[in-house]
Amino acid sequence: MFSRWADRPLTSLLARLPSQCEVCRAWPSRRICDACVTRFAPPAARCGSCALPVPEGVARCSECMRDPPPLDACFAACAYAWPWPDCIAQFKFHGEAGWAGPLATLMRSVPWVEPALEQCDGVLPMPMAPARLRERGFNQALELARRLAPAKTDAALLLRTRETPAQSGLARAERLRNLRGAFAVEPLRAHELQGRRVVLVDDVMTSGTSLFSAAAALRLAGAAHVTALVFARTDPPH
User: Fold this and answer.
1) Residues 21, 60: one domain?
2) Is residue 1 one of the residues assigned to a domain?
3) By residue range, what is the domain housing residue 143?
4) Which burial class, exposed, middle or buried, applies to 107 when counting CB atoms under 10 A from its CB (0-12, 13-18, 19+)?
5) What is the CA radius of gyration of the chain?
6) Do residue 127 and residue 57 come from a single domain?
7) Which domain of life is it from (predicted)?
8) pLDDT tens track of the chain, all 238 residues?
9) Degrees, nearest 5: CA angle 63-115-127
10) What do you get for the CA distance between the two ends of the chain, in Å?
């Protein structure tokens, strides 16, 4: 069904070599040391539908109870707070694709993520508009997906049909209107989604409207179960 990506032995070997922690500068270490992971990406109770923080023991936030998004599950490895914005900026805007490995490792460590990846039929990176892709040189969501599940990653099934204006400052309803029709399933392959389980991958989830819009397109094509998996989630101010 889904396209296959070969493993990258050299990338895997380089990822295991000792280096300096990018956060605390400990040496020798991995790119993010265990102490920094423990300090800056602690386990947290999050809404199962949108990954916003919730009190311990609460499965869904009040917003998702009132207006459920088109996701069956949603996981985030950490809050979008220091030091992660700097790390993600290096990854996305400075061409440092090597960040994909350590970030994907943290995403895999979230409870229930491993079963979600094992049970799904395909892992779909959030697509980028062609102009943005040419400008950046690579799709960070695709790099994460390849590290999470290389044999299941498919970058050609979910498409971005157009670039959209900035979402900042817009209410939720306006964001959804802004993204209407921005995502679509490859028409000649839509039948492959019938009754399938898929995992949507992205680096950062802000309001959730992009992921929700992409998930809605997958639902429309017949996907039976859609999980979203992101590295960082923007939490509301306290």
Assistant:
1) no
2) no
3) 43-164+173-233
4) buried
5) 17
6) yes
7) Bacteria
8) 554 334 445 445 455 556 789 999 988 778 899 999 999 999 999 999 999 999 999 999 999 999 999 999 999 999 999 999 999 999 998 888 889 999 999 999 999 999 999 999 999 999 998 888 888 889 999 999 999 999 999 999 999 987 665 555 555 555 666 667 789 999 999 999 999 999 999 999 998 999 999 999 999 999 999 999 999 999 876 5
9) 65
10) 44
Residues 30 and 107 occupy one common structural domain:
no
Calculated CA dihedral for residues 149, 117, 22, 99, nearest 10 degrees: 30
CATH number of residue 120's parent domain: 3.40.50
Structure tokens at 127: 């697509």
The verdict on 19 and 95 lying in the same domain is: no
Tell whether 52 and 145 lie within a shared domain: yes
- Are the C-beta atoms of residues 73 and 212 closer than 8 Å to each other? no
| 159 in the same domain as 125 | yes
Query: Which alpha helices (DSSP H) does 49-208 contain, by range?
Result: 62-66, 84-93, 100-108, 113-119, 130-136, 140-148, 172-179
